[in-house]
Amino acid sequence: MHASVLASLLAEVIQHVKELKRQTSEMAEESPLPTEDDELTVDSICDEDGKFIVRASLCCDDRPDLLPDLTSALKTLKLRTLKAEITTVGGRVKNVLVITEEHNGTGYDDQQQLAAAIEDALKAVVEQRAEHDLSSSGGTKRQRTTSLLSAVEHSSI
């Protein structure tokens, strides 16, 4: 009987730890602060007008060419930014972008295909960090804490 009580208690503890991990993950997703690990999530929906909307969140090392690289990636896919939230802390950056198709479309018929293309393009931007790190002069990165919230309505990034 003692072993079954311990097993039951252990099962409860494991379940509680799993629930805490789930809650922590949810809080981290909602946090505007960058994490220590590179992350990329792309979620897509159709709004009430049937317009394809994508929420992309990426976290990586900050670098001078990051925003131009993001802009180029989105323009290449014929996307425009509806909203951008950018937070940098200690050399890390978190970008949360709400994007949609340009008025004349993207050329993708399938929304899942477009979401995959967006994810691939943003992943390539995040992975360019390694190339930038190798080619940098080895200077010390300045510590920064900046928060920028910008909403861009009806214009291309």
UniProtKB/TrEMBL annotation:
Keywords: DNA-binding, Nucleus. It holds the Pfam family bHLH-TF_ACT-like_plant. InterPro entries: ACT-like_dom_sf, ACT_dom, AIG1-like, bHLH-TF_ACT-like_plant. PROSITE patterns: ACT (PS51671). The keyword Ion transport does not apply. The keyword Ligase does not apply. GO terms for molecular function: DNA binding; DNA-binding transcription factor activity. Its main location: nucleus. Residues 129-157 are annotated as: Disordered. It is found in: Nucleus. Residues 135-157 have a biased composition (Polar residues). Residues 55-137 form the ACT domain. This is ACT domain-containing protein. It comes from Ensete ventricosum.
